[in-house]
Amino acid sequence: MSFSLDSLTIDLGGRPVIRDLSFTVAPGERLVLLGVNGCGKTTLLKALDGLLAPSAGRIAYEGEPLTLQRLGEAGFRRRFRGEVALLFQNVDAMLFNPTVADELAFGPRQLGLADVAGRVARWARTFDVERFLDRPPFELSGGEKKRVALAALMAVDPKVLLLDEPTANLDPATGARLVDFLEGLRDVTVITATHNLTVAEELGSRAILLAPGRVGALFDGPTHDLVHHQALLIESGLAHRHVHHHGGEEHQHFHVHDAE
Question: Which of 127, 128, 180, 231 has a C-alpha 20 to 30 A away from that of 10?
Fold first, then answer.
């Protein structure tokens, strides 16, 4: 499923977070949103999920304006919520059911989908949370909650995944399995926000680089080109040149900021 943004501007608390941003996302595309904290990645994902209204400009989903008025129409809202799924950076905001099984079943039940039990079993197995099905989500670790939240999103068979720092709080092995899972998805549009340059190329072949206070994007193109473009990474704040001295000689090293 596709998105189109035309001169999008979003103000929060009187401060422009996104300014005059335009781009399109093709069906099935895997796009990475890169930038430091505060550059607007999360705000943009929430706007794409219909949770924030533009201050100016326009967002379209499948050629239809994505507005609060349109989302107020039952038919469009049900279709959109069944097709577009957002993973919050803080997954505690997503988990509110008494058990993990109820979390995975909630979306399918709300949308009236068939075989709820089968969906719960399939995605609990896929994300290795079967042993938690009878437990309250609040008892789980951060990484376990992340896996439960992802399983709950996939239980409705979304056509679009909006992922906010999906590898955060995951151990390296689990993070790698998640990246492999995302790479294996077919016919699903995936838009991932991260500041982790280490996994950026695996998360998507196209990247958009945002920077605080910037009009538009600093970069929109192949992810490989961006992660090797030192000047742009430094300008955006994702990297810096570290200068030190040894024996009276000055040395410079290029450092990226990709710890989560």
Answer: 231
